[in-house]
Amino acid sequence: MSSPTRSSAKSSAKDRLSGVWALKGYKREWLRHDLVAGAALFALLVPAGMAYAQAAGLPPVTGLYATVVPLLVYAVVGPSRILVLGPDSSLAPMIAAAIVPLAAGSSEKSVALAGLLAVLMGAIMLAGAALKLGTITGLLSKPIRLGYLNGIALLVALSQLPAFLGIEADGDIWQKLAKVTTGVLTGGVNLPALLLGLGSLALIWIPKLLKWKVPGVLLAVVGSCLATAFLGLNDDVKVTGVLPQGLPMPALGGIGWADAVALLPAAAGIALMAFADTGVLSQTLAAKEGKKVSGNREMAALGAANAATGLLGGFPISGSTSRTPVAVDAGAKSQMTGVVGSVLVLAFMLLAPGVTEFLPSATLAAVVIAAAIALADPAGVRRLLSLSRSESVVMLAAFLGVLTVGVLQGIVVAIALALLDFVRRAWDPYRTELGSQEGRPGYHDLSRHPEGERIPGLLILRFDAPLFFGNGQVLASFVREQLDETSDDISHVILAAEPITGIDTTALDDLVTLDEWLARHGVDLVFAELKGPVKDKLLRLGTAARFTPDHFFSTVSAAVRELKDEE
After folding, report:
1. What's the pLDDT score for residue 170?
2. pLDDT tens by residue, 88-106
3. CA 34 to CA 42: how far, in whole Å?
4. Minimal CA–CA distance to 44: which of 289, 308, 337?
5. What is the separation, in whole angstroms, between the first and last Cα of the chain?
């Protein structure tokens, strides 16, 4: 094998098995840090996994399956040195929205559908990575993410109110809220459940406020279990009960191709959101170390983790913005931290499944509510509202869409609105006349600098958008209007074309028509600072005879100098 081929094969193996490759450089002194961080992480993995499974309408044990499997898979193929994958509060309502209509009330069918959903997500991400689509999250602009995250936060918190208040309620979010409202008004609140929920929230938040090292979630789970056991409340409040003892196993029975087809759109939408969250988190962690993670490798690793999780009784997962910082703060040095955490979860499932016998559902609801509140970003909302009206509309559409028409549908509506807003801005872009200013080099926007002066005989115009079928006529009308408004004898229109990054055939026809109209009025159209690729396309589309080399200038200043000399 030649050296280049050997090097290529080595690079390919490194890409596919990033975690295994990283073990070659593993330092012995890291092990102590990874063991401690893994133990700290374990304290969150069990309650968080069970809580998010409950939020997705699935048995709590599936949350542990969806915790163990992705951590082990990502340790083998993941490109990030420290990233914790697992169930996430932002995905829970999307999972529920996708599987509940198809499950027909069957818990076994729900688990199978959730597994199938994760497998489909994994396949989509692996295909996306193969097609180099690691930058696709650019569709999710900041306004969409703000609206989506705040909508999800409210939706998740509201969905946990029945368990938090000890009120039996099923159906969609609005049906649950109606039953909760009726229960509150008619005195149907389970007081022990409410007190356990409030106490759990207090134990979650107090350590954060006091900056304790002990995770508040661990205190809430242990405290509520002890209170339920010693006070004999397990007959008065709903509890998780003893977990099934055993390892993650396949649970895809009873599903068919029709289910896969029905879940495919949801799988694509959830895959986009999961990768967006994971990609941002991964790049943030890498940036702190002065490194960069390949988006395509991250997508492939997340896809593999989801596929494996779905095959072994779990449900869709993503990078965790709550558990990853815990691992980092505890001193994690590598993905060995996740391996230690997952092994401890496995040991818990095999050796101590009865510990959850006294774990109240209200406490799990409190865990989810706390996560949802942390997910919300009211400060970001206020800032965007003060900065941009159009982007605020997109954010509000995402927020209301998530709450009303559904999580995935709301995101689709918001993306459509964002694209329409982009088209609107390209359709009607900023355009202005440029002039000179005494004491300042270059040519400046006369609408912003009215003290500037026109260059005699020349009309310098700037159009801040690519030329396409929607705005070619806008440019032509702008040029005509500016000529009509000036009383000067104009010989040349100089188009400051640096912002024009593209042109299509429709806009080209509009440009040719404009040039013909200008020629009939004794005016020449020339271009300054037109980008090379755009100029090449312009000439390739058959205008070389019309727009000869003397129609193009490297800068506006060069055009002004030469055209003034001609006069």
Report:
1. 76
2. 888 888 899 899 889 988 8
3. 12
4. 337
5. 69
Residue type, 360: P
The overall pTM is greater than 0.70: yes
On the CB side of 439, CA atoms within 13 Å amount to: 1
CA distances 498 to 84, 270, 351, 454, 477, Å, are 45, 39, 68, 20, 20
332 contact partners, CB below 8 Å, separation of at least 6: 33, 34, 37, 38, 41, 82
Domain definitions of the chain by residue range: 13-420, 430-566
- Rounded Cα distance, 516 and 544, in Å: 15
DSSP 354: G
Question: Residue 10 CA to chain centroid, in angstroms?
Answer: 32
CATH topology of domain 430-566: Transcription Regulator spoIIAA (3.30.750)
Phi, psi values for residue 443, rounded to 5°: -125, 140
- Cα 84 to Cα 70: distance, rounded to the nearest angstrom: 9
**Tokens standing for residue 368:** 């989810």
pLDDT of residue 9: 46
Confirm if 398 and 144 have CB atoms less than 8 A apart: yes
With a cut of 70, list the residues of the chain below it in pLDDT.
1-25, 137-140, 565-567
For residue 547, the one-letter residue type is F
Q: Where are the alpha helices (DSSP H) in 405-504?
A: 407-427, 472-485
Residue located via tokens 């912003």: 448
Ramachandran angles phi, psi of 406, nearest 5°: 125, 155
Question: Any idea what DSSP says for residue 462?
Answer: E
C-alpha to C-alpha distance for 481 and 370, rounded to whole angstroms = 58
Give the per-residue pLDDT at 23: 60
On whether the CB atoms of residues 564 and 458 are closer than 8 A, the answer is yes
**454: exposed, middle or buried (Cβ count in 10 Å: 0-12, 13-18, 19+):** middle
DSSP state of 131: T
Cβ-count burial 514-550 (b if 16+ within 10 Å, e if not) = bbeebeeeebbbbbbbbeeebbebbbeeebeeebeee
Nearest 5°: phi and psi at 458?
-125, 145
| Tokens at 223, concatenated | 């405290």
Which of 534, 543, 536, 481 has the alpha carbon at shortest distance from 515? 543
